[in-house]
Amino acid sequence: MKEQLQSIADEALSMLEKVQDMKSLEEIRVTFLGKKGKLTAILKGMGALSKEERPIVGQMANDVRKRLEEAIQNAKTKLIKKERAEKISREVIDVTMPGTFIPRGKKHPLTLVLDEIKEVFLGMGYEIAEGPEVELDYYNFEALNTPKNHPARDAQDTFYINENVVLRTQTSPVQVRVMEKKKPPIKIICPGRVYRSDQVDATHSPIFHQVEGLVVDKGITMGDLIGTLQVFARSLFGEDTKIRLRPHHFPFTEPSAEVDVSCWECGGKGCRICKNEGWIEILGAGMVHPYVLEVCDIDPAVYSGFAFGLGVERTAMARFNINDLRLLFENDIRFLKQF
Ligand code: DAH
Question: Residue 211: its pLDDT value, please?
């Protein structure tokens, strides 16, 4: 039995010396020290020994168990250290390696202009409002005093989803949506995409952007409109910019005007940019029509307001001297890089 114990100890220790992973280590433990293990079998067989031999062999078996347990613990510690070292070397990062180059983007000219416009109006205390691009005929036309027989409703100008739903042709419907919900004082701008059934050319696109403005309060006059547009034109086109209002017709404003700014290139003398006019048209505006106020349950005898709508593409083309609207939508990097 002593020899048996000795050979079990030798065998286990030599296996433990070579063990490479936790799983095999556990297998070794079970093989020798487990319930059905080799050492356990010996202890169980001790009943057959003589009284004299029993304590000696028992002592020896205990010694062997202790040695094995220690050896297993040592092997385990070694394996953990080894695994950790391997993990660290696997995950090592060379901070001196060159990084991956990420090209830096820039803002689209339309976004640049839109940001400038927003900044001017936010600075004057306006809030930004939004409305749906797929819009009810009611908001896009009807409530804006544009009845069923109005030429702007022609299918040649408007994309119809069905009889009552259109792709909005202007940002003006947001005026009505805002006035329905909120009572004066109202001071909002509404930037957004609009759609018209136009062929693409140097000045037309079926999709473009507008910024709508609306101010409603007691005692708002045309003077407020002109002052506001002057501030806007100066911040976008330069301190010396003048504005000019030409009488016009919009169904939802009365009186209505088209608004020009003096040419930033020649200062009004006439040049190639302004086609010798000295002026460049940038927006439509007017005093909110009493019909529109009434539709929104705002009393036109108490409140008045002004509104304007400007084309973002047109403003960007003016601001950056771009001569073809298509350039703004083609996303040619060589073009976009310039701004
Ligand atoms: N919605 C008009 C258009 O698309 C622009 C416009 C004109 C908006 C006058 C207004 C306004 O709010 O008062 O042509």
Answer: 98
